[in-house]
Amino acid sequence: MRYGIFSDIHGNLEALEAVLGAFKNEALDRIICIGDIVGYGPDPSLCIQKIKELGCKTVAGNHDWGASGKIKISNFSVYAAQSIAWTKNVISNDELNFLNSLKIEYANSDLCAVHASYEEPESFNYVYQIRDTLDSFKSMPGNVCFIGHTHIQAVFMSKAGTVVRLKQERVVIEPNIRYLFNAGSVGQPRDGINLAGFCVFDTKKKLVELRRISYNINSVKQKIRKRGLAEFLAVRLGQGR
After folding, report:
1. How many domains in the chain?
2. What is the rounded CA–CA span in Å between residue 51 and residue 32?
3. Are 44 and 91 in contact (CB under 8 A)?
């Protein structure tokens, strides 16, 4: 089984289309979206439509639930709250219902997927450092889990109770070891690299690859300004922060 896995689209259609274009060359069996289809970006409706057309397994992100009303906007930062309020006004009722219908996690015999930390997924706790992974590793139903939320690609490995962060972008899954992969962000990476992020997981080869791809950032920046969204949201795309 070959999986294409991505997270945090954030209304960035150009970045999403670049990732989906890359997927066409991967002979994938299944695609998984780890949430935050909307928020920050200028094309929430078109991104929702793309995900619905794919028919891929999709879990809820905090921005998805914020737009659908499951999370209070007051819980978000100023820029996030402003963009969520704008998103709610421009997407259709059907699209709101779709966001509202998203489950908090997905799991099968190969992997599990959740937007943020696994132990309390509905709390959307961030996983930045080793100490943030400990409860997730204890709670995971299997040995391989994919997350997003931080917008930073990362790989954490737990072996015999010891957790380390791996630096490589290609990881071979070994037996009796647990792995937590952060797929990064399609539409708003924050690691200083302004390329859309995604993962490919080949269960036959037992290989997970963290990938990046370029997209038309200037087009998205122009749309953000045209929609009247915060200038900061346009600037940060070029900076990858």
Report:
1. 1
2. 10
3. yes
CATH number at residue 137: 3.60.21.10
Alpha carbons 197 and 151: distance in angstroms, whole number: 9
CB of 16 within 8 A of CB of 4?
no
Cα separation, 158 vs 149, in Å, equals 20
Alpha helices in 3-129 (DSSP H): 13-23, 44-54, 62-68, 78-90, 93-101
Task: Show Cβ contacts of residue 100 under 8 Å, excluding neighbours closer than 6 positions.
Answer: 65, 68, 69, 70
Give Cα 231 distance to the centre of its chain.
Answer: 23
What are 20-51's pLDDT values in tens digits?
Answer: 999 999 999 999 999 999 999 999 999 999 99
Q: Say how many residues make up the chain.
A: 241
Query: How, if at all, do strands 144-147 and 154-159 pair?
Result: unpaired
The boundaries of the domain holding residue 221 are 2-239
Taking the complete model, does pTM exceed 0.90, yes or no? yes
Q: Which residues pair with 58 in a beta bridge?
A: 33
Q: What is the dihedral of CA 95, 57, 5, 9, to 10 degrees?
A: 10
- Residue 39 dihedral angles phi and psi, to the nearest 5°: 100, 135
Radius of gyration of the chain (CA): 17
> CB-based contacts of 97: which residues, under 8 Å, 6+ apart?
68
